[in-house]
Design goal:
The complex is a heterodimer of chains A (286) and B (265).
Chain A: E1 2-12, E2 20-31, E3 35-39, H1 46-53, E4 61-66, E5 69-71, H2 81-86, E6 87-90, H3 103-113, H4 118-131, H5 148-160, E7 166-170, H6 178-193, E8 197-201, H7 205-211, E9 214-219, E10 222-227, H8 229-232, H9 236-241, H10 248-258, H11 269-281
Parallel strand pairs in A: 3-8, 3-9, 6-7, 7-8
Antiparallel strand pairs in A: 1-2, 1-4, 4-5, 9-10
Chain B: H1 15-18, H2 21-35, H3 41-57, H4 62-69, H5 73-86, E1 92-96, E2 99-102, H6 103-129, H7 132-143, H8 153-183, H9 193-224, H10 246-264
Antiparallel strand pairs in B: 1-2
Helix pairs in contact in B: 2-6, 2-7, 2-10, 3-6, 3-10, 4-6, 5-6, 7-8, 8-9
Classes of the chains: A alpha/beta (286), B mainly alpha (265).
């Protein structure tokens, strides 16, 4: 199965003086089970696109196929629960969605909405509390007594607890400390490796280089590139023209090159180390 | 990105937009008082022409004003029909149980309909052509005399300005939280009354917490920039009277003369 967008457009406030194009004739196909990165600067339409994945927004024209559902402008708002159980979104700063009296109950909210029994809900809640790296003793605490980083983890656990087939995360690691960032990214990578689709909306090109299999680049509501990370990051002038940054490894290699130490453009830090080692000793780094 | 604007202000450039917000606010109030001076068809004709003149002067599409009237249309029609069917007088055309259809009733029904519609239309003229912050400034100016009674007008206007400023922020936050909870399987439009009331909790709790946080942040930001009450502060937006403001003044004078004259007919 795959996620298909066919000529999808979205217009904000159609027919009013505030009319604005959110998405402009998007067509693409994503393979399920992959780690997909969605990049583009603020206002490029990433958030608008994201909300189409589980029909929070419906296209003004065009057609979407996702998780066995077909979404068209005529799709009714009723009966979308099944879709939302399969395709879930984690918005930016998801800690703003916490509301329950205890951490455990907050994580159970989603599973219970999707028909899990009380026991099942508690089971998955405890499981995901541990998976996001929190100790079992926070379960009975109020989510509002936790630190910002812990709240973020609780909120993410609250979405992952019902194990959607497709999860789309908007800057899930923004504001976390470096260690926390790596832990969360590894958690998503592992989730994908277990057979789910992960769509990551991000500005962090290092994460794109390190984790993504496939990249969608948005600008002014249009899809301007859809390729693997290596191809996307290959053309420095193109990136510069579209105000996109490069992974640090690639920037570092560029600086080395300018200083006379020319190596092949790497994608990740590991590749960079390999290239440098190979160039220095003629032996691969390991 | 925020796609909404506070209130119902729509950008435009006709002279109505250039009229001082104080003049617009006062003219709107004055117009509403004038409506109640109309007692005969000549009076209603005059006030309707004046009301429509203001609408046309904005240069905006009729739909904008229709959108203003639309939410109230049933209330207006209901009240107008009440007047029509319960008022007796003149020639009676039809009578059944407590309902009467008479010439006086029909005329009064039309008057009530006009009165309501005109009030909404002129208020719409003001709200779509004046930025909410300008309205707040104008209100502060109008409240100024209350200073004599030791009312802290500056503080009141600060409260109004901050409230207006945070309407879109809170609106965005509400949409965001609703979307997040919908993604977690919440259904805000399904089930009976109790179920619906319960479904609001996951939206309201985060919204309250967020508002408190925003309020605390704002007060910290204001204090760290030296805010110590509004006494003696100068303003960023200064309202100045200009020649354009003579238009609403003459508008009011001519309207008054007409209304008083029609009453004497």
């Amino acid at each position: 199965m795959s996620i298909k967008f066919k000529n999808v457009s979205y217009i904000y406030n159609p027919g009013s003086p505030l009319e604005a194009v959110g998405l402009d004739d998007l067509s693409f196909e994503l393979e399920e089970g992959k780690f997909i990165a969605l990049v583009g600067h603020t206002g490029s339409g990433k958030s608008t696109l994201m909300q189409h994945f589980n029909a929070l927004l419906k296209p003004s024209s065009g057609e979407i196929e996702i998780a066995g559902y077909k979404i068209t402008p005529e799709t009714s708002n009723k009966g979308l629960k099944g879709l939302r159980q399969k395709v879930s979104l984690v918005f930016q700063f998801p800690e703003a969605q916490l509301f329950e009296s205890t951490v455990l109950r907050d994580i159970e909210y989603g599973p219970k909405n999707f028909g899990f029994s009380d026991e099942e809900a508690e089971k998955v809640a405890r499981k995901w509390l541990e998976k996001v790296g929190l100790k079992a003793d926070v379960a009975e605490k109020s989510p509002f007594d936790l630190s910002g980083g812990q709240m973020r983890r609780v909120a993410i656990a609250g979405v992952m607890a019902y194990e959607p087939d497709i999860i789309c995360l908007d800057e899930p690691a923004a504001g976390l400390d470096p260690q926390g960032r790596i832990e969360m990214m590894e958690l998503f990578k592992q989730y994908q490796a277990e057979g789910h689709t992960v769509i990551l909306v991000t500005h962090n090109m290092d994460d794109v280089a390190d984790y993504a299999d496939d990249v969608l680049v948005m600008e002014h509501g249009q899809l301007i590139k859809h390729d693997v990370p290596r191809e996307v990051f290959k053309d420095r002038d193109w990136l510069f023209k579209h105000h996109l940054s490069e992974p640090h490894s690639s920037l570092f290699a560029d600086k080395l090159g300018k200083a006379g130490f020319v190596i092949k453009q790497p994608l990740t830090i590991n590749e960079l180390a390999d290239e440098i080692a190979a160039r220095l000793k003629g032996v691969p780094h390991e | 990105m925020s796609k909404i604007i506070i209130g119902r202000y729509l950008p435009g450039s006709t002279f109505v937009y250039r009229v001082d917000p104080r003049a617009k606010l006062l003219t709107t109030f004055y117009f509403i008082i004038m409506i109640f001076l109309a007692t005969n068809w000549q009076g209603y004709l005059a006030i309707t022409i004046f009301g429509l003149a203001a609408v046309v002067a904005t240069g905006l599409k009729a739909k904008v004003f229709w959108d203003g009237v639309k939410p109230m249309i049933w209330l207006i029609l209901f009240t107008a029909l009440m007047q029509t069917f319960f008022m007796a007088g003149g020639t009676t055309y039809w009578h059944w149980w407590i309902f009467t259809l008479s010439s006086e009733g029909i005329i009064n029904g039309i008057y009530v309909f006009l009165r309501f519609s005109l009030i909404i239309l002129v208020s719409t003229v003001m709200t779509v052509t004046t930025k909410p912050l300008e309205i707040a400034d104008a209100m502060e100016w109008i409240l100024k005399p209350l200073k004599l009674f030791k009312v802290n007008v500056g503080m009141i206007s600060l409260v109004i300005s901050i409230a207006l400023r945070f309407v879109p922020t809170l609106f965005d936050q509400t949409v965001k939280i609703m979307n997040a909870q919908r993604s977690r399987g919440a259904d805000f439009n399904d089930g009976g009354l109790i179920k619906r009331a319960k479904s609001v909790v996951p939206m309201l709790v985060p919204l309250f917490i967020d508002s408190l946080e925003v309020a605390l942040d704002l007060s910290t930001a204001m204090e760290s920039r030296g805010y110590k009450g509004s006494e003696g502060r100068t303003r960023y937006r200064i309202l100045t009277w200009s020649k354009v403001d003579l238009v609403p003044l003459f508008y009011c004078i001519i309207l008054t003369i007409l209304m008083v004259t029609t009453r004497m007919l």
